[in-house]
Amino acid sequence: MAIYKDRRAAGHVLAKALGDYHGIRNGLVLALPRGGVAVAEEIARALKLPLDVILVRKLPFPDNPEFAIGAISEDGSLFMNPEFRSSSAQYPEWLQKIIQEQMSIIQQRARIYRPHRRQHSIKNKIVILVDDGVATGATMRIAIQAVQKAGAAKTIVSVPIASPSTMLELEAEADQIVVLEAPLDFQAVGQAYESFAQVSDEEVCEILDRNS
Q1: Cα angle: 64, vertex 58, 104; to 5 degrees
Q2: How many angstroms separate the CA atoms of 112 and 9, rounded?
Q3: Measuring CA to CA, which residue among 147, 139, 205 is closest to residue 29?
Q4: How far is 162 from 151, CA to CA, in rounded Å?
Q5: How would you classify the pairing of strands 154-161 and 176-181?
């Protein structure tokens, strides 16, 4: 049964849960595109914090593109799910091809999302990382690593829904997590939403323009 009408409704609830960070001087909301951007806009507006995107991509398993074997970030940081680390050592060619493909998408999105916008500095910031939900958690984990590498003072993961096992893993990596729902019958992020339409690059750009 759906919990939220749409991503914006989920963002509105998350903003209330993050009330302690309202108006903090060194706060920054970073969204994982594309679905996380609609959620993050509601949080950034309510907390009166700047909004930006962090560009990460999952590394899809060749035989099942919906399954993430890992993730990569814009700065080249790489995360591999533990069960695939040994496999990646045995099959470097197919893995390298996937990495190159996903990095190409990241670079393309950087050109689309930042034609005239300056990327916000992360150093010494309290960073709220936002997505519309986490399943395997690969993209969120590489996002955590990227902002910590960039010198964030504090890293907060904020999502409407997560699988219980992934939530526990994220707790070990972020300074704080705010997860509204972690149902035992978790199957997919979309189960939390009545409306879960894909967010387009055009919508992401419109949101960034409204909050620049």
Answers
A1: 110
A2: 26
A3: 147
A4: 26
A5: parallel
Q: Is 55 left (phi over 0), alpha (psi -120 to 50) or beta?
A: beta
Write down the mean pLDDT value for the chain: 92
- CA atoms within 13 A of residue 62's CA, in its CB half-sphere: 11
Secondary-structure class of domain 7-56+117-210 per CATH: alpha beta
Q: What pLDDT does 82 receive?
A: 74
- Chain segment 138-156, per-residue pLDDT in tens: 999 999 999 999 999 999 9
What residue segments make up the domains of the chain, in order of their start?
7-56+117-210, 58-112
Token pair 């009166």: residue: 48
Please tell us whether the domain made up of 58-112 is placed in CATH 3.10.450. no
Kindly report the length of the chain.
Answer: 212
Q: CB within 8 A of 82, min separation 6: which ones?
A: none
